[in-house]
Protein backbone atom coordinates (compact mmCIF):
# COMPACT_ATOMS: atom_id res chain seq x y z
CA UNK A 1 0.00 0.00 0.00
CA UNK A 2 1.03 3.63 -0.54
CA UNK A 3 2.33 5.43 2.61
CA UNK A 4 -0.08 8.07 3.93
CA UNK A 5 2.52 10.86 3.55
CA UNK A 6 2.73 10.15 -0.20
CA UNK A 7 -1.04 10.26 -0.48
CA UNK A 8 -1.00 13.64 1.30
CA UNK A 9 1.80 14.97 -0.92
CA UNK A 10 0.01 13.88 -4.11
CA UNK A 11 -3.17 15.53 -2.82
CA UNK A 12 -1.30 18.77 -2.10
CA UNK A 13 0.24 18.75 -5.61
CA UNK A 14 -3.18 18.30 -7.21
CA UNK A 15 -4.35 21.45 -5.39
CA UNK A 16 -1.70 23.56 -7.17
CA UNK A 17 -2.45 22.00 -10.56
CA UNK A 18 -0.06 19.03 -10.76
CA UNK A 19 -1.67 15.60 -11.18
CA UNK A 20 0.70 12.76 -10.19
CA UNK A 21 -0.69 9.39 -11.23
CA UNK A 22 0.76 7.11 -8.48
CA UNK A 23 2.89 6.91 -5.36
CA UNK A 24 5.70 5.19 -7.26
CA UNK A 25 5.70 8.04 -9.80
CA UNK A 26 5.80 10.61 -6.99
CA UNK A 27 8.94 9.02 -5.53
CA UNK A 28 10.62 8.74 -8.96
CA UNK A 29 9.69 12.36 -9.73
CA UNK A 30 11.79 13.63 -6.80
CA UNK A 31 14.88 11.93 -8.27
CA UNK A 32 14.75 13.62 -11.68
CA UNK A 33 18.01 15.40 -12.65
CA UNK A 34 17.28 16.48 -16.22
CA UNK A 35 14.27 17.75 -18.18
CA UNK A 36 13.75 17.76 -21.92
CA UNK A 37 11.18 20.29 -23.14
CA UNK A 38 9.27 20.46 -26.41
CA UNK A 39 9.38 23.93 -28.02
CA UNK A 40 6.17 24.58 -29.96
CA UNK A 41 3.18 25.01 -27.67
CA UNK A 42 5.15 24.13 -24.53
CA UNK A 43 7.82 26.88 -24.39
CA UNK A 44 5.97 29.08 -26.88
CA UNK A 45 2.46 30.52 -26.72
CA UNK A 46 1.21 28.46 -29.69
CA UNK A 47 -0.27 31.60 -31.27
CA UNK A 48 1.85 31.99 -34.41
CA UNK A 49 1.41 35.20 -36.40
CA UNK A 50 2.84 36.35 -39.74
CA UNK A 51 5.55 38.95 -39.05
CA UNK A 52 7.45 39.12 -42.37
CA UNK A 53 6.79 38.57 -46.07
CA UNK A 54 9.62 38.47 -48.64
CA UNK A 55 9.10 38.50 -52.39
CA UNK A 56 11.37 38.25 -55.41
CA UNK A 57 11.70 41.38 -57.56
CA UNK A 58 8.38 42.54 -58.93
CA UNK A 59 6.12 40.18 -56.99
CA UNK A 60 3.43 41.81 -54.87
CA UNK A 61 3.40 41.08 -51.10
CA UNK A 62 -0.41 40.90 -50.81
CA UNK A 63 -0.66 38.69 -53.90
CA UNK A 64 1.91 36.21 -52.54
CA UNK A 65 0.10 36.17 -49.16
CA UNK A 66 -3.23 35.68 -50.97
CA UNK A 67 -1.93 32.72 -52.99
CA UNK A 68 -0.57 31.09 -49.84
CA UNK A 69 -3.76 31.80 -47.86
CA UNK A 70 -5.87 30.31 -50.67
CA UNK A 71 -4.19 26.95 -49.94
CA UNK A 72 -3.77 27.31 -46.19
CA UNK A 73 -7.47 27.89 -45.55
CA UNK A 74 -7.79 24.16 -46.36
CA UNK A 75 -5.26 23.15 -43.65
CA UNK A 76 -5.41 22.98 -39.84
CA UNK A 77 -1.62 23.32 -39.36
CA UNK A 78 -0.82 26.19 -36.93
CA UNK A 79 1.30 27.87 -39.65
CA UNK A 80 -1.64 27.59 -42.04
CA UNK A 81 -4.01 29.27 -39.58
CA UNK A 82 -1.54 32.16 -39.16
CA UNK A 83 -1.12 32.64 -42.93
CA UNK A 84 -4.87 32.39 -43.66
CA UNK A 85 -5.53 35.08 -41.02
CA UNK A 86 -2.87 37.46 -42.42
CA UNK A 87 -4.02 37.72 -46.04
CA UNK A 88 -6.12 40.81 -46.88
CA UNK A 89 -7.71 38.98 -49.82
CA UNK A 90 -8.03 35.20 -50.25
CA UNK A 91 -8.78 33.79 -53.74
CA UNK A 92 -10.29 30.33 -54.25
CA UNK A 93 -8.03 27.28 -54.70
CA UNK A 94 -8.59 23.94 -56.45
CA UNK A 95 -6.90 20.51 -56.19
CA UNK A 96 -5.38 21.27 -52.78
CA UNK A 97 -3.20 18.51 -51.32
CA UNK A 98 -1.18 18.69 -48.10
CA UNK A 99 1.99 16.70 -47.49
CA UNK A 100 2.39 16.35 -43.71
CA UNK A 101 5.68 17.72 -42.38
CA UNK A 102 6.47 19.42 -45.72
CA UNK A 103 3.74 21.74 -47.00
CA UNK A 104 0.75 22.17 -49.28
CA UNK A 105 0.02 22.55 -53.02
CA UNK A 106 -2.95 23.64 -55.16
CA UNK A 107 -4.12 25.65 -58.16
CA UNK A 108 -5.03 29.34 -57.78
CA UNK A 109 -6.20 31.37 -60.84
CA UNK A 110 -4.82 28.61 -63.09
CA UNK A 111 -1.37 28.86 -61.44
CA UNK A 112 0.15 26.01 -59.42
CA UNK A 113 1.11 27.37 -55.99
CA UNK A 114 3.17 25.41 -53.46
CA UNK A 115 3.88 26.50 -49.87
CA UNK A 116 6.22 24.64 -47.54
CA UNK A 117 9.46 24.28 -45.62
CA UNK A 118 12.78 25.56 -47.04
CA UNK A 119 14.02 21.96 -46.79
CA UNK A 120 11.26 20.88 -49.18
CA UNK A 121 11.01 23.97 -51.46
CA UNK A 122 14.15 25.69 -52.78
CA UNK A 123 14.27 29.29 -51.48
CA UNK A 124 16.51 30.23 -54.42
CA UNK A 125 17.64 33.88 -54.33
CA UNK A 126 15.75 34.35 -51.02
CA UNK A 127 17.99 31.88 -49.13
CA UNK A 128 20.08 34.46 -47.22
CA UNK A 129 17.07 36.57 -46.23
CA UNK A 130 15.20 33.41 -45.15
CA UNK A 131 18.14 32.37 -42.96
CA UNK A 132 18.20 35.84 -41.41
CA UNK A 133 14.49 35.62 -40.45
CA UNK A 134 15.11 32.17 -38.94
CA UNK A 135 18.00 33.60 -36.92
CA UNK A 136 15.47 36.09 -35.51
CA UNK A 137 13.37 33.14 -34.28
CA UNK A 138 10.78 32.96 -37.08
CA UNK A 139 9.64 29.81 -38.83
CA UNK A 140 9.74 30.54 -42.58
CA UNK A 141 7.77 28.88 -45.39
CA UNK A 142 8.65 29.28 -49.07
CA UNK A 143 6.06 30.09 -51.75
CA UNK A 144 6.54 28.65 -55.27
CA UNK A 145 4.64 29.84 -58.37
CA UNK A 146 4.63 27.15 -61.08
CA UNK A 147 7.74 25.61 -59.46
CA UNK A 148 9.69 28.90 -59.15
CA UNK A 149 10.36 30.63 -55.82
CA UNK A 150 8.30 33.82 -55.64
CA UNK A 151 8.23 34.63 -51.93
CA UNK A 152 8.68 33.59 -48.31
CA UNK A 153 6.51 34.06 -45.23
CA UNK A 154 7.96 34.43 -41.71
CA UNK A 155 5.80 33.32 -38.79
CA UNK A 156 6.62 34.09 -35.17
CA UNK A 157 5.42 32.17 -32.11
CA UNK A 158 6.47 34.09 -28.97
CA UNK A 159 8.24 32.49 -26.03
CA UNK A 160 5.99 32.31 -22.95
CA UNK A 161 7.15 35.17 -20.69
CA UNK A 162 7.95 33.00 -17.64
CA UNK A 163 10.37 30.71 -19.53
CA UNK A 164 13.77 32.42 -18.78
CA UNK A 165 12.97 32.57 -15.05
CA UNK A 166 11.84 28.91 -15.04
CA UNK A 167 15.07 27.79 -16.76
CA UNK A 168 17.16 29.74 -14.23
CA UNK A 169 15.23 28.20 -11.31
CA UNK A 170 15.65 24.66 -12.68
CA UNK A 171 19.38 25.25 -13.16
CA UNK A 172 19.55 26.44 -9.54
CA UNK A 173 17.87 23.18 -8.50
CA UNK A 174 20.65 21.26 -10.27
CA UNK A 175 18.30 20.12 -13.04
CA UNK A 176 19.67 20.21 -16.60
CA UNK A 177 17.43 21.48 -19.44
CA UNK A 178 17.32 20.32 -23.09
CA UNK A 179 15.09 21.72 -25.86
CA UNK A 180 13.68 19.22 -28.37
CA UNK A 181 11.96 20.50 -31.50
CA UNK A 182 10.85 19.59 -35.01
CA UNK A 183 11.59 23.15 -36.11
CA UNK A 184 14.75 24.12 -38.05
CA UNK A 185 18.14 24.62 -36.35
CA UNK A 186 18.34 28.42 -36.73
CA UNK A 187 14.82 29.10 -35.36
CA UNK A 188 15.39 26.63 -32.52
CA UNK A 189 18.68 28.26 -31.47
CA UNK A 190 17.16 31.76 -31.55
CA UNK A 191 14.33 30.69 -29.21
CA UNK A 192 16.71 28.71 -26.99
CA UNK A 193 18.96 31.77 -26.60
CA UNK A 194 15.95 33.83 -25.43
CA UNK A 195 15.02 31.03 -23.01
CA UNK A 196 18.55 30.59 -21.63
CA UNK A 197 18.72 26.96 -22.83
CA UNK A 198 22.09 25.88 -24.20
CA UNK A 199 21.37 22.22 -25.10
CA UNK A 200 19.20 22.27 -28.26
CA UNK A 201 18.20 19.40 -30.56
CA UNK A 202 16.34 20.57 -33.69
CA UNK A 203 14.71 19.06 -36.80
CA UNK A 204 13.57 16.06 -34.74
CA UNK A 205 10.74 13.77 -35.78
CA UNK A 206 8.68 12.17 -32.96
CA UNK A 207 10.83 9.01 -33.03
CA UNK A 208 14.03 11.13 -32.90
CA UNK A 209 12.69 12.82 -29.76
CA UNK A 210 12.13 9.41 -28.13
CA UNK A 211 15.70 8.34 -29.04
CA UNK A 212 17.10 11.57 -27.55
CA UNK A 213 15.18 10.87 -24.32
CA UNK A 214 16.64 7.36 -24.10
CA UNK A 215 20.14 8.90 -24.37
CA UNK A 216 19.34 11.30 -21.52
CA UNK A 217 17.81 8.64 -19.24
CA UNK A 218 20.94 6.50 -19.70
CA UNK A 219 22.95 9.32 -18.03
CA UNK A 220 20.57 10.45 -15.25
CA UNK A 221 16.86 10.22 -14.34
CA UNK A 222 15.14 12.41 -16.93
CA UNK A 223 11.68 13.88 -17.44
CA UNK A 224 10.09 14.97 -20.73
CA UNK A 225 7.58 17.83 -20.91
CA UNK A 226 5.35 18.10 -23.97
CA UNK A 227 1.86 18.91 -25.16
CA UNK A 228 1.37 17.53 -28.66
CA UNK A 229 0.34 14.13 -29.97
CA UNK A 230 3.83 14.16 -31.58
CA UNK A 231 5.34 14.00 -28.12
CA UNK A 232 3.63 10.78 -26.99
CA UNK A 233 6.62 8.47 -27.83
CA UNK A 234 9.05 10.79 -26.02
CA UNK A 235 6.77 11.06 -22.96
CA UNK A 236 6.61 7.25 -22.84
CA UNK A 237 10.42 6.92 -23.17
CA UNK A 238 11.15 9.30 -20.25
CA UNK A 239 11.51 8.22 -16.59
CA UNK A 240 8.75 10.78 -15.97
CA UNK A 241 6.51 12.01 -18.81
CA UNK A 242 4.85 15.35 -18.06
CA UNK A 243 1.92 16.61 -20.15
CA UNK A 244 1.18 20.35 -20.13
CA UNK A 245 -2.31 21.83 -20.33
CA UNK A 246 -4.19 18.63 -19.54
CA UNK A 247 -7.62 18.36 -21.12
CA UNK A 248 -8.15 14.71 -20.28
CA UNK A 249 -8.35 12.90 -23.61
CA UNK A 250 -5.11 13.64 -25.52
CA UNK A 251 -2.62 10.92 -26.42
CA UNK A 252 -0.03 13.08 -24.60
CA UNK A 253 -2.03 12.87 -21.34
CA UNK A 254 -2.51 9.11 -21.76
CA UNK A 255 1.25 8.49 -22.09
CA UNK A 256 2.12 10.91 -19.26
CA UNK A 257 2.98 10.06 -15.63
CA UNK A 258 2.29 13.61 -14.49
CA UNK A 259 -0.16 16.14 -15.94
CA UNK A 260 -0.34 19.89 -15.36
CA UNK A 261 -3.92 21.17 -15.48
CA UNK A 262 -2.93 24.65 -16.68
CA UNK A 263 -0.07 26.03 -18.74
CA UNK A 264 1.96 27.93 -16.16
CA UNK A 265 5.53 26.66 -16.60
CA UNK A 266 6.47 27.89 -13.11
CA UNK A 267 4.68 24.75 -11.92
CA UNK A 268 7.65 22.71 -13.19
CA UNK A 269 10.28 23.84 -10.62
CA UNK A 270 7.53 24.05 -7.99
CA UNK A 271 6.53 20.42 -8.61
CA UNK A 272 10.17 19.25 -8.49
CA UNK A 273 10.72 21.08 -5.21
CA UNK A 274 7.54 19.54 -3.79
CA UNK A 275 8.51 16.01 -4.88
CA UNK A 276 12.02 16.39 -3.42
CA UNK A 277 10.68 17.57 -0.03
CA UNK A 278 8.17 14.70 -0.05
CA UNK A 279 10.95 12.23 -0.71
CA UNK A 280 13.03 13.55 2.20
CA UNK A 281 10.07 13.16 4.57
CA UNK A 282 9.36 9.61 3.40
CA UNK A 283 12.96 8.31 3.48
P1 LIG B 1 6.30 21.27 -36.55
O1 LIG B 1 5.08 20.76 -35.81
O2 LIG B 1 7.58 21.05 -35.79
O3 LIG B 1 6.15 22.65 -37.07
P2 LIG B 1 5.55 19.72 -38.92
O4 LIG B 1 6.05 18.34 -39.10
O5 LIG B 1 4.10 19.91 -38.65
O6 LIG B 1 6.50 20.32 -37.82
O7 LIG B 1 5.94 20.61 -40.21
C1 LIG B 1 7.31 20.76 -40.54
C2 LIG B 1 7.45 21.89 -41.52
O8 LIG B 1 6.74 21.59 -42.73
C3 LIG B 1 6.87 23.20 -41.04
O9 LIG B 1 7.78 23.92 -40.23
C4 LIG B 1 6.62 23.91 -42.38
O10 LIG B 1 7.82 24.44 -42.87
C5 LIG B 1 6.19 22.76 -43.28
N1 LIG B 1 4.73 22.63 -43.33
C6 LIG B 1 3.98 21.63 -42.82
N2 LIG B 1 2.67 21.83 -43.08
C7 LIG B 1 2.59 23.01 -43.76
C8 LIG B 1 1.53 23.79 -44.32
N3 LIG B 1 0.24 23.45 -44.24
N4 LIG B 1 1.85 24.93 -44.94
C9 LIG B 1 3.13 25.33 -45.04
N5 LIG B 1 4.17 24.65 -44.55
C10 LIG B 1 3.92 23.50 -43.92
MG1 LIG C 1 3.45 19.54 -35.91
From TrEMBL:
It comes from the Bacteria. GO terms for molecular function: ATP binding; ATP hydrolysis activity; ATPase-coupled monoatomic cation transmembrane transporter activity; cadmium ion transmembrane transporter activity; metal ion binding. The keyword Transmembrane helix applies. GO terms for cellular component: plasma membrane. The lineage of its organism: Bacteria, Bacillati, Actinomycetota, Actinomycetes, Micrococcales. It comes from Mycetocola manganoxydans. Keywords: ATP-binding, Cell membrane, Hydrolase, Membrane, Metal-binding, Nucleotide-binding, Translocase, Transmembrane, Transmembrane helix. The keyword Translocase applies. Belongs to the cation transport ATPase (P-type) (TC 3.A.3) family. Type IB subfamily. This is Cadmium-translocating P-type ATPase. Its main location: membrane. It is found in: Cell membrane.
Amino acid sequence: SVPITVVAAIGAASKFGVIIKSGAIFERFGGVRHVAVDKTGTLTRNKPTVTAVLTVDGADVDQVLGWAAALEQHSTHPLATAIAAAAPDTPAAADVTELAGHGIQGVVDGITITVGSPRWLDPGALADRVASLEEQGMTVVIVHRDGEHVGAIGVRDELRPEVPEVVRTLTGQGIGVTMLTGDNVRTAHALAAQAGITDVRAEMRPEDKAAAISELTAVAPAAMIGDGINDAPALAAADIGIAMGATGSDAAIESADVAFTGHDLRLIPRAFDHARRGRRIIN
